[in-house]
Amino acid sequence: MPKTLPGALGYRYFRKVTVDIGSIAAGEVEDETVTVKGLRKSAPVHVEFPNLNAGLVPCNEHCSAADTLKFRVYNDTGGAVNPASQEIWVTQF
After folding, report:
1. What 8-state DSSP symbol labels residue 83?
2. CB count, 10 Å around CB of 80?
3. Residue 53: DSSP 8-state
4. What predicted TM-score, i.e. pTM, was given to this entire model?
5. 64-77: b or e for each residue (b if 16 or more CB lie within 10 Å)?
6. CA atoms within 13 A on the CB side of 81
């Protein structure tokens, strides 16, 4: 359930979303696009990955269009990794 919370910078929007990141070869990045209802373009986004595999590094999280979250995951391990489907936490300020 999305929540809008008052904060020092105005309102924050919080949502939990399930993602299934594809297999990532060693030293490569995987670009992901996820629909997140309520996201606004040009407002800062923070994404938490509470269950992401060790050696995978999320980066470049941003709202590319209304309701659209884009991010990359870099594989810093020595082999391919196929992360399990998992919940991420999206906050927009």
Report:
1. P
2. 11
3. P
4. 0.84
5. eeeeebebebbbee
6. 22
